[in-house]
Amino acid sequence: MNSQSTAGFLGAVVAAIALAAAFIYGPSPSQMRNPQPAAVQQAAPAEAAPAAPVPRGPVIREVPNN
């Protein structure tokens, strides 16, 4: 076997493994027809504390030369 046919064979093996994993770990048809309802989110508190101001970047200060 030359390197091209070996690479083609290994590529086919990897593709078959990936396809099998997609079927095994993918959602079943019953899950696709009847999805679970999303969890109900709790309401945010009425009065939230104000957020801290966002820093604007580095502060450049003069350093005296000694």
UniProtKB/TrEMBL annotation:
Domain of life, source organism: Bacteria
Composition bias type Low complexity, residue spans: 35-51
Region (Disordered): 30-66
Record-given protein name: Uncharacterized protein
UniProt source species: Bradyrhizobium ivorense
Taxonomic lineage: Bacteria, Pseudomonadati, Pseudomonadota, Alphaproteobacteria, Hyphomicrobiales
